[in-house]
Amino acid sequence: MTQSNDNPGVKALMTAASEERFMALVTATSDVVYSLNADWTIMRELDGRGFLKDAHQPTTDWFNINIPQQERVRVRAAIDEAIKDKKIFELEHRVSRADDTIGWTYSRAIPLLNEQGNIIEWFGTASDITERKRAEELLQETNERLVVSNRELLQMQKNLEFRTAEKQEAIDRLHASERNVRNMVRQAPVGMCIVEGDPMYMTEMNDSFLEIIGRTRQEVKSKPYWEVIPEAKAVYKPITDNVLATGNTYRAYEHEIMLVRNGLPEIVYIDFVYEPMIDFLGKAYAIMIVAIDVTDKVLARRKVERAEESLRMAVDAAELGTYFINATDRIFNPSPRLKDFFGFKPHEEVPYEAAINQIHPDYRQRVADMVEAAFIKGERFDLEYPVMGFHDGRIRWVRGIGTMQHYDGKDFFTGVLHEITERKQDEIRKNDFIGMVSHELKTPLTSLGAIIQVADAKLKDNEDEFLSGAMRKAAVQVKRMAEMINGFLNISRLESGKIRIEKTKFNIVDLVNETVDEMKATVNNHRIDFTACPSTQVFADWEKLLSVLSNLISNAVKYSMGGTTIEILCESGDDEVTVSIKDQGIGIKSSDKDKIFDRYYRVENNNTKHVSGFGIGLYLSAEIIKHHNGRIWLESEPGKGSTFYFSLPLA
Ligand code: ADP
After folding, report:
1. For the domain 320-419, what is the CATH code?
2. Any idea where the PAC domain is (predicted)?
3. From CA 75, how far away is CA 90, in angstroms rounded?
4. Atom 2 of ligand 1, residue of closest alpha carbon
5. Do the beta carbons of residue 277 and residue 248 sit within 8 Å?
6. What is the per-residue pLDDT for 367?
7. 2 pLDDT band (50/70/90 cuts)?
8. Which fold has domain 131-298?
């Protein structure tokens, strides 16, 4: 409140004022103008603009009407002081307004004094300062808050300063790693992209990713992500939203989705990861998508699964027994059907030894050796053998086929078995019949051969040329017939497992010489040349090898033109000796090469149809060589000739 004890302004007003001029002044001012009696009990408003309540009417309770409760003490004190000191009243205070709201006013009142210096009246003005006051309040409030924030900021700054170096480093690292991430995305062999923003755009992507979604770089740059691949929105948008909201990684494997690639809808399978990229405040601001198109893999696996299913069905339908033996621990896993073949109950435990024990003793060792050969040399197993039922003692013939398989990082010997008892029994009967017939024919033929030999000797110098010639020819035919019968006899012995290999030690060169000499006696139209190797000892069956060699030489004769040469060569190596028989005949197509050693197999064409034979010579030869742990093979060019080879281990 301004202190003004001598009141110069009041005196000036008193002397200058005339009622009219004063009212004009009052009307011109924007403030409310009022007068009060000396002790402020009655107020009269002068301009009538409704600032105060009960305008125009002199009121006695103006104080209670105009001054709100919370200001009364303060305003009363200021009034009392002004009256007491007879000085200007000046105060900013709250005021009740005509519309019942509370505003602020700046009141100022001047006392009018008489000659004796007593107050006769007060003149006052009130200006509305509500707006200013509100602004001030707001400012005050803001300031208070600012002070608090400043204090906090200061504290934060201190903390930050403390860790600035660390932070800068972290920021640098973060930037570097973000750069790395973006580089990685561009160069990755798998599909990668970064999506960010709202709406989401692909801000980084590599060609692999574009290939997966089947879009061009141009297409993806111009549109928000979900407009680029609208077909994926329904499934994937909820996922990306969730990753951004939670900051959690999302992974999916072999996710099936329809994508429109190059305008065509395609079902594809994708492995993918949605990895959130996190900012300083720990919030996910982007997603790195890593996607691998595994469609080929999935389809291939399905194909394998289907193939496996068909195989399983075929195995069931054909009533095949199956098994696998683990290469490392040799654990034998037979199927129920296989156990049945061996006379075991389907749920019985059947170890490898137990199964082997049920194989007929004549074949047991051979089966065991062949399984071993499969494990060690990877040889294919294919054998027909009889088994004796464990519980029922029944003899069943089975054919077992097996190979080594590599699966899931492990080696297995696995295969199938099927029962061939009926066929085998037919075959056995047939073989027995052939064996019996051959045997029966052999006896009279031997006698016939002997008679012809004697007759031939006697008729050698006979004048009747026909007779002497006829006896020689008869001898050749009888020999051929004997060979054929021997062949049948051998085959039946072989089939019934009765073939006997009687081994002795001898020089292979002697054997070839003897065979060649024998052959030369009956072969007239071909030249037979033998180039011997140094003496080489073998441990073998002389008779059986002689039949192999004579078989190969007679084939060379049979399947080549008269006048050509047959070259026989013997080559001895470090651990084996090889004999080859080369002709200049019709040759053998490569498609026939594999089958030529099969039983009863003959090549059917115009060149061979006039040549007699049963297709058992090569089969027998191969079996004999196999029984000697040797090898037999051929090289041939149709129209030029063939070379048959066999090799035997050295003694
Ligand atoms: P066979 O001669 O009695 O028919 P083999 O088992 O000895 O029976 O021979 C099987 C088949 O192989 C023959 O039918 C023939 O077609 C073919 N063959 C064998 N040796 C030769 C050869 N040296 N040249 C051409 N073809 C041959």
Report:
1. 3.30.450.20
2. 89-141, 251-306, 381-432
3. 10
4. 613
5. no
6. 93
7. very low
8. Beta-Lactamase (3.30.450)
